[in-house]
Write a structure and sequence with these properties.
Length: 491
């Protein structure tokens, strides 16, 4: 059975998996943006800055070298040399930065840059050596060296400009790509959010519908049941807890229908039974008032019917207390043999010819803790039924202690046709006894129901009925007193 809990867990896992896939997609897109931004910021920009720095440093070197050839600036040559050396160091640092920022596939490598600049460095160094050492003062020679230095500088600037243009173009491409990827990432995030919301909403709606639909169907069926329509069938709407709930409601409905039927029968039977003794009471009272019958005879009939009416009222009250859980047994130490013998004696006038009652009671095993009046009522009901359903033969009552147990077993057996098999399982229900051979015409059908409640109201009490070859046996199990309590009860 797929429970609601499993359905909810599966829904959560599916939503989590979908969101996880979306998160991975966003993460990969974010990494691509980060890589492109890293290439733009750490590579392309670094190369452009390095090329600019090398161009500036080369111009400083070139300008200081040219200025050193001017006669008026001869005194400044040491300062120029210092500026040139600093510019060379800066150039070397920029060159290292440029080399480290290069990636595979660049059109112009560092070798060409250093080669073109090396010629300018060499010419500049030669020219400075000549000027400082005073090896020559030939203006033509100095002019020639300066022209070579100028040509070398132009070639270097050309290479640097070529690289700068290439880097700027590449930088523009990277910038455009990063902007596009950022927009794509933003669009992807929006799409992921929207799709996640729609997916979660759709799946959640589907699952909630699958859960709420059987619940609404069950609610509709229960409303029908609440309105008293016990014929409306509560279908098993699903194979989960709601299905079990529907099955339990169907079972409850059947029980309510049965209880409603029994209640209606109870009202009908009670009304009939209440009306039955009232009619003779009214009839005999009217006849006595008119002097048509002797007053003592009328009073005796009225008394008999009044007692019958009282028994019926007592039974109805007992049923009400039992079903309301309010029946109370007043426990005390008693000797059950005395109770049974008293019941037999009180029912002796009701025993018809051809029927006898035999008591086989153990004199030492009849001590227990119980309610004397309630037990007398229970055994009166059992023996009264035994008398009514025994046309001829013997009724036997026995009491003994069960072996290896602190329980008493009391058996009431009669000789007769027994109880019909289809009635036996529900014998202790209300009104059932009235269905046995129609011999319980003057009873309410509540006696055995009350008897069962009384027996079970004694701690550990049990009662059952079984058919045998000769008739029916009622077996009552009651808890016996302990050995110490027996002595107190006997006193």
């Amino acid at each position: 059975m797929i429970t609601i809990r499993k359905k909810l867990i599966a829904t959560f896992l599916v939503i989590s998996l979908f969101v996880g896939i979306m998160v991975v997609a966003v993460y990969n897109a974010g990494r691509n943006v980060a890589d492109s931004f890293h290439e733009l910021n750490d590579k392309s920009v670094s190369r452009i800055n390095a090329l600019h720095q090398m161009k500036i440093d080369s111009l400083v070197i070139y300008s200081r070298a040219v200025e050193s050839t001017v006669e008026d600036n001869q005194k400044e040559i040491p300062e120029y040399i210092q500026d040139i050396r600093k510019a060379e160091d800066d150039f070397a640092g920029a060159y290292v930065t440029y080399s480290q920022a290069l990636t595979n596939g660049d059109s112009v490598g560092p070798d060409r840059l250093i080669m073109d600049n090396w010629n300018a460095f060499a010419l500049n160094s030669d020219m400075l050596t000549v000027l400082v050492q005073g090896a020559t003062t030939d203006k033509n020679e100095i002019r020639e060296m300066r022209e070579k230095l100028e040509q070398s500088q132009k070639r270097f600037e050309s290479v640097v400009n070529e690289n700068l243009n290439s880097e700027l173009a590449h930088n523009q491409v990277l910038t455009t790509r990063v902007d596009d990827m950022e927009r794509s990432l933003f669009a992807l995030i929006l799409a992921v959010l929207a799709s996640s919301v729609m997916f979660a909403t759709g799946l959640g709606s589907l699952v909630s519908y699958r859960i709420s639909k059987p619940l609404m169907q069950l609610k509709s069926s229960v409303m029908e049941l609440a309105n008293g329509n016990y014929e409306a069938r509560i279908m098993k709407v699903s194979n989960d807890e709601f299905g079990d709930l529907a099955a339990n409601f169907e079972k409850m409905k059947d029980e309510l229908r049965e209880k409603d039927k029994m209640q209606n029968e109870f009202i009908m039977v009670a009304s009939h039974e209440l009306r039955t003794p009232i009619q003779p009471i009214l009839g005999f009272a009217e006849l006595a008032l008119k002097g048509k019958i002797a007053t003592p005879h009328a009073l005796q009939k009225i008394l008999d019917e009044a007692r019958r009416l009282k028994r019926l009222a007592d039974d109805i009250l007992d049923v009400s207390q039992i079903e309301g859980g309010k029946m109370i047994c007043k426990m005390e130490d008693i000797y059950i043999n005395d109770v049974i013998e008293g019941v037999i004696q009180s029912l002796s006038p009701l025993v018809p010819p051809g029927v006898s009652i035999t008591a086989d009671l153990s004199p030492v095993d009849g001590f227990l803790k119980g309610d004397t009046e309630r037990l007398r009522q229970a055994f009166s009901n059992i023996l009264d039924n035994a008398i009514k359903f025994t046309q001829a033969g013997n009724i036997t009552v026995s009491c003994s202690k069960l072996k290896d147990s602190d329980k008493l077993e009391i058996r009431v057996s009669n000789e007769g046709n027994g109880i019909p098999t289809e009635i036996l399982p529900r014998l202790f229900g209300k009104f059932v006894a009235k269905d046995i051979d129609g011999r319980n015409k003057h009873g309410t059908g509540l006696g055995l129901f009350i008897t069962k409640a009384i027996i079970e109201g004694h701690d550990g009490g049990e009662i059952r009925a079984d058919n045998n070859d000769r008739g029916t046996t009622f077996t009552i199990i009651l808890p016996a007193l302990t050995q110490e309590s027996k002595g107190l009860a006997a006193q």
